[in-house]
Each structure stands twice: as structure tokens, then as C-alpha cells.
Amino acid sequence: MSDTTSVERAFAILETFEREKRALSLKELSEFCRIPASTCHSLVHTLVRRAYLYQTGRRKELYPTRRLYDMGATILAHDEVLLRLLPAMEELRDATRETVILGKRRKEDIVYLEVLESPEVIRYSARPGDTKPLHSTCIGKCMLAAMPANDLGAWLSEHPPYPVTGGTITDSAALLSNLEEGRREGVFTTRGENVADVTALAVPISVNNELYGLAVAGPSHRIDDRFEQVRCCLKDAQQSLLERDLAGHV
Amino acid sequence: MSDTTSVERAFAILETFEREKRALSLKELSEFCRIPASTCHSLVHTLVRRAYLYQTGRRKELYPTRRLYDMGATILAHDEVLLRLLPAMEELRDATRETVILGKRRKEDIVYLEVLESPEVIRYSARPGDTKPLHSTCIGKCMLAAMPANDLGAWLSEHPPYPVTGGTITDSAALLSNLEEGRREGVFTTRGENVADVTALAVPISVNNELYGLAVAGPSHRIDDRFEQVRCCLKDAQQSLLERDLAGHV
DNA sequence: AGTTTTGATTCATATTTGAGAATTATGTTG
DNA sequence: CAACATAATTCTCAAATATGAATCAAAACT
Fold first, then answer.
1. Which band of pLDDT confidence, cut at 50, 70 and 90, is reported for residue A57?
2. pLDDT (mean) for A29-36
3. CB proximity list for A61: less than 8 A, separation 6 or greater
4. pLDDT score recorded for residue A43
5. Residue A129 sits at the chain B interface (C-beta within 8 Å)
6. A157 touches strand C (CB under 7 A)
């Protein structure tokens, strides 16, 4: 399986600037990213040539240019999936005052594509691009539940549900019946299975015939108190996003 | 000189999304970027693993995630140079109603780091990350004029000024005296030397003891009519940015 | 200012990656 | 629904890159 190290490293460099939030020398970069100085030099050289980095200051310190931002902004403004889902997600966030998440399955995990954080100071906090396990998150359960029974069985035996918190369901049979319950209710939940004291609910959403998961997550005490209300808001959002031209996946 | 192809290609892929503004299949990407399909596959694989791309739609179409945007936004918000210069640049744009540009020298060219476009519909239009020649642009002239006489002479003989437009100064002696004039006046100008019917003025700016060029550019007829006024606005901006702790470069 | 230390850059070579051919999967058409 | 067409993916070896050592440049210190 091909593994383009240099690309990974180029992004590691950019991510280092994102984390450090300041100009960095080649030396610092090579240390932060665990890249040999000579290799780091050639990567930086390429990034400067493409105008993603520029040299600021005497000591040849480096910092990214606006280019990355402008590219990201143009791309974001034309994301059809997000454009379609955002209004309903914002409404859902405002109705529940909890964090709303859009996620999608990759091979063996979930990626967050959009996160609208709750206005509360104590809230479920995450970032687009974060990845989570399939078996311990509510969006993950959406995805597992959408698999044909045979495939799901096979997947479970190859990927036995490992503990993430003390509350994670680590028994395959228990997970299967949890999924079945979710299918019946039309909503998948986690209670402290991925993060202690976090309860989250998710429903499947179909866009362009592709499956996504829409979730509401927050501190267990706030969610559990008004579980039915939150569940209804989520189902309403799901309903408003239903595509007429295709059947749901579940 | 090392040339990390795979990194260049990874960014070529992202830039393709920026240009096309839609989801693309692997095949399309490999055609747009002139990358063999198998190679493109491994690059995309890496970008998906890092959550910079996600698969949208049945036919395995791809689109970038928000990750790029969020990273760019965080980085942009902490750019010390821009933070320092932006207020004066905005003021200058509002005072002149023309496009204001911040540029910096790389080895053999100028990179635009920031562009605040004029509110007029006919305006000088450019993007951060664009690169321009040294000898035909006003910011380039700032940079050349800051070189020690010997180095400048040597540079000119190795890089004879080639024509960009019909108006480009292609005679080294003429360019030298044009630079000298700029040094005397404290402002460097181009009139149709890089783009026909565009007049631009630039002054050198020093940040962290590093040289930048600040320019105002617009249609020649609009600028020439009020050259002195524009010049004064630019000099005012330069003055307001003067650092007390170090001498100018010129 | 001379000396030392630190960081940037270059270079030759072992290692890894990239490209074409073959294979598999998916969607399309008769 | 079968056969075709198109795209995605895997695999292997030639070719390009990554690396450590050496060199060069610039700060920091005495």
C-alpha cells in the first residue's frame, strides 16, 4: 500500500504552523515534525516555490502565506454536501443548543466533516477532520447498522470492539443488539462509550446516494434530561433532509 | 536541487479543486493534473488518510474537507507581518480607492503576500501567491534598488531585463537610472512595463528587519491624473509603518 | 574583533517511490 | 440480464528521492 511520506510530511509542516501559531526556523520545523534537516529543507523549498510558505525575518524564519486560506475558502464555498446540509444543521444546533456533527465513514473509522459547536461553555468540542472509532460512536453505529448482516458479522469478527472508555460495549453480541435497537428506533446513541459523560444521538442521512451520519452530542446530564426532545429535533432535521429521489440506506 | 514531485502534485490536486469547484473522480484528477492514474491514486489515498479529502457520491468522487480552510484560517489569524501591516494597507486602499499590494522578494521574483483590491469595477486584480518579475514591477524595483551596487550590477548582467510588455525597460543602463530616480524620490514606479495601461507605485517597508514592498496599482489613466495624491498616500502609509528600532534598507 | 556555536545548504548514495501492465470492481448499454 | 466499457486498485521494477556527512554562513559570546 503506497505511502507517500513526503506529502504527509509537507502537511505535517503546515499543521505545525497551525499548532505553534508563529514563524519557525527550518531547524525547529525539522524537530517538531521529526524530519531530518536536509529533507525538511527540500520540502520547505518546494512549499516556498509554490508560494505556500514565505521567509519572514532575518534568521530565515518561515511562515505560511494566505494562499492556503484562500484556497480553502474557495473550496469550502463550493462544497455541495455542506451547502445542502448546513442550514438544517444550524437549525438543529440552535434548537438543541448542543454540538451538531456531520460524519462519514472511511474504511475503518469515522471522519468529522463539519462540527457546529454548542453555545454552552461546557460542550462537546471537536474539529472537522477528527477521526473516531466505528463501534463506540453514534455516527459509527449508523454506518455499521447500514451494512448487510453478513458483512457486519464478518467485520465484527475481524474488528472485535475494543474498549475506548469504561462504558464501551466490548461484546459483539451486545453491540449487535444495540445496533438492532437503533434500527428499530431510527436513532443510534452512545452513552459514555467513546468519551465519559458524553451522550450522543445520530441518524443516517443520504446525500447523492451516499451515506452520512448526523449527530447531536453533549454532556450526558444535559442530554439525558431531555432525551426525547433532542431525539425529535434530530429526527426533524433528518426528515427535512430526506431526498425524494432515493430510498434511505437503513 | 531537490524537487519533491509528490508534494507539488499533492498541491496541484488541491488547486484543481479550487479551479474546478466541484467533486472530481480519480480519473479526472489524473487528467487535469497530468499525473498517471496509479500515482494519483496513492496521492489521493494519503490526502484521504490525513482527512484533507473525502469521498462523496457513489462513483467514488472526491472533494476536499473543511480541514484545509480551518488550518488556513488559524494560520492567517496569527501572521504577525500581516497583522502589523493590514490596518495601514486598508487605510491606503480606502484613501486611494486603488488596489494595494504587499510583496516580498524570493530568489528571482516577487511573491504577492496580500492583495486588497480596489472597490472600482475596473481595477488591478491579483491574488496572494501570484509571482511577478523583478525588473518590470514597482515592488521588484524596490528590491533591486536595495541591493548593493556591485551585486545589482552582477545580477543585471546575469539577468538581462527581458520584455514583458512593449513598455518594459529592457536596457540595463536605463533600468539602473530608473532605479536611481526611484531612490531619489523614495518611490518606485512602473508605467505599462509589466501590464499595459497599468501604473503602479511602491515603497520599501521593513518588518522584523526584513524588506517588503508596499504598492498601489491601477489603470494608468486613473493613477496618472492624481499621481501626486497617490504618492502622498503611499508615503504616509510608509511613514506610519516606520519601525523606530531600525533603519530603512534604502 | 576573534572565536565558538548554531543553523542552513549541498552532495553522493542507499532506499523508497512512481509508472506501466495487469487485475478487479463498478456502472452502462444492447 | 448479459456483455461491455470504464474506472479503481494492486503489483513490480526502474528511477527519483531521502538521508547522513560535509561544507558553508551567520549569530552569539568573550
1. confident
2. 93
3. A23, A24, A25, A55
4. 94
5. yes
6. no
Residue A249 is predicted with a pLDDT of 39
Is B68 near chain A, with CB under 8 Å? yes
**Phi, then psi, of A161 in degrees rounded to 5:** -65, 110
Q: pLDDT tens across A176-217, in order?
A: 999 999 999 999 999 999 999 999 999 999 988 889 999 999
Using a CB–CB cutoff of 8 Å, tell me whether B78 touches chain A: yes
Task: Scan for cell 437503513, then name that residue.
Answer: A250
Give this prediction's pTM.
0.88
DSSP annotation of B52 reads S
B interface mutation test: which of A44, A71, A212 has the most B CBs within 10 A? A71
Residue reference for cell 429526527: A235
pLDDT the model gives residue A148: 87
Q: Is B118:B89 a contact under the CB 8 Å cutoff?
A: no
Domains of chain B: 5-70 (1.10.10.10), 79-241 (3.30.450.40)
Decide: helix, strand or coil at residue B228.
helix
Residue B18: list chain A partners with CB under 8 A: 71, 74-75
Per the CB < 8 A criterion, the answer to whether A125 and A200 are in contact is: no
Mean pLDDT of chain B: 92
Grouping H, G, I as helix, E, B as strand and the rest as coil, residue B91 is helix
B42 is near strand C: CB distance < 7 Å: yes
Write out the three cell numbers for B111.
511573491
- Interface check for A23 against chain B (CB to CB < 8 A): the answer is yes
Distance of C1' in D15 from CA in A45, Å: 22
The answer to whether B114 and B86 are in contact (CB under 8 A) is: yes
Q: What is the mean pLDDT of residues B93-101?
A: 97
Nucleotides on strand D lying under 7 Å from protein C-beta: 6-11, 16-22, 26-27
Query: How close is the nearest chain A Cα to the Cα of B10, in Å?
Result: 7
* Res A250: pLDDT: 36
Whole-angstrom distance, CA of residue A85 vs CA of residue A80 = 9
Distance in Å from C28's C1' to B59's CA comes to: 13
Percentage of chain A exceeding pLDDT 90: 84
**pLDDT tens-place string over residues B23-68:** 999 999 999 999 999 999 999 999 999 999 999 877 789 999 999 9
